[in-house]
């Protein structure tokens, strides 16, 4: 009876650990996609700014307006980059917490296995 209880709890523990691993992996993928997209947008904005300077140098006032708009968009993209960094930090913290939980689960598993061995010896 006690052995089955430990066995069920161990299964539940492993299922929870696997769910945590999957969630962390998916979160990491999503953060990576956001980061890649933001970096691509920053590169595109830089190219557009350089192009505007080269092509429209003679229309100085308009170029300044375009440049100002592009720099505002670039600043917005940089803010997105900061948000991504914050997400990456949160992800790292979450992964550290998960690692700590896994360590605790491993210790609990060892205790459960020890208890199961003890119960088996008593039964025999």
TrEMBL record:
Protein name according to UniProt: Uncharacterized protein
Native source species: Artemisia annua (Sweet wormwood)
């Amino acid at each position: 009876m006690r052995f089955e209880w430990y066995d069920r709890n161990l299964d539940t523990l492993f299922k929870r650990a696997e769910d945590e691993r999957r969630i962390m992996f998916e979160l990491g993928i999503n953060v990576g996609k956001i980061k890649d997209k933001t970096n691509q947008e920053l590169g595109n904005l830089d190219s557009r700014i350089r192009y505007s300077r080269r092509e429209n140098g003679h229309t100085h006032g308009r170029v300044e307006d375009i440049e100002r708009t592009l720099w505002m968009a670039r600043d917005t993209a940089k803010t997105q980059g900061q948000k991504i960094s914050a997400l990456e930090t949160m992800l790292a913290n979450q992964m550290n917490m998960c690692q700590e939980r896994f360590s605790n689960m491993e210790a609990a598993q060892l205790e459960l296995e020890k208890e199961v061995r003890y119960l088996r010896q008593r039964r025999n």
